[in-house]
Amino acid sequence: MPQIRFEDVSVRYDGTAHHVLDRITLELSEHRIGIIGANGSGKSTLARLVNGLGEPTSGRVLVDGADVARHGRDIRRRVGFVFSDAENQIVMPQVRDDVAFSLRRLRLPKAERTARVDAALERFGLTELAEASPHTLSGGQKQLLALASVLVIEPDLIIADEPTTLLDLRNRLRIAHEFAGLPQQLIVVTHDLELLADFDRVLCLDGGRVIADGAPDEVCGHYRRLMAEQPL
Ligand SMILES: Nc1ncnc2c1ncn2[C@@H]1O[C@H](COP(=O)(O)OP(=O)(O)O)[C@@H](O)[C@H]1O
Ligand SMILES: [Mg+2]
């Protein structure tokens, strides 16, 4: 698995009074890692640092020893990011081209490019929709398309930010099933605590810090108690 290191990482956005992430030091090398925490606790900020979508205000994030801030382009080839709102990830007018678009930088021979796109569409049940406009897909299908567009580049590491939030039960199961079968390292930000039941490690963020880190049942239990204690 890739080795992700956070070295004393803080993030502070312009105009905010306090740090969104406050001196976080972490080493992430497990296969499947979950990130939980209340709205606004910094989960997306943390996830985005791993592939250079965001930068630390201080400290460093390294993937296999490479500083993400300096090697953004290589890192983005290795680290796929699936956004919560799959609509935002659509770039092309046809489903097939949208998946193929991800491959543009890999300079593959045409036959291989076509084969990879076909396989990705098949895997996510999108073959019949290959010629459709991505905007006409259901929310669940859009999420599957977003995942197909990320997996087609065969990244070493996949980060998904609230991938099941907008999905019905069937599509949620489909995503959970795909995640369970991925050989790659996977980091999932979610409020869907059940999705994390068999993950290797879960982190809980609060107040810019990692307040719990360990097995899913233990960390999710901690989070549930923390939320229950807070006044409504
Ligand atoms: N681009 C930004 N500019 C200013 N503040 C931001 C920006 N992005 C996020 N924030 C703030 O940082 C905090 C953490 O945001 P985020 O990482 O999105 O949390 P989460 O994903 O856990 O809900 C929130 O208070 C949010 O309003
Ligand atoms: Mg978020």
UniProtKB/TrEMBL annotation:
Highest taxon of source: Bacteria
Pfam families associated with the record: ABC_tran (PF00005)
UniProt-listed InterPro entries: AAA+_ATPase, ABC_transporter-like_ATP-bd, ABC_transporter-like_CS, ABC_transpr_CbiO/EcfA_su, ECF_ABC_transporter_ATP-bd, P-loop_NTPase
Oxidoreductase found in the keyword field: no
GO molecular function: ATP binding; ATP hydrolysis activity; ATPase-coupled transmembrane transporter activity
Keyword annotations: ATP-binding, Nucleotide-binding, Transport
Domain named ABC transporter: residues: 4-232
PROSITE patterns: ABC_TRANSPORTER_1 (PS00211), ABC_TRANSPORTER_2 (PS50893)
Record-level GO cellular component terms: ATP-binding cassette (ABC) transporter complex
Entry's family note: Belongs to the ABC transporter superfamily.
Stated name of the protein: ABC transport system, ATP-binding protein
Organism ancestry: Bacteria, Bacillati, Actinomycetota, Actinomycetes, Mycobacteriales
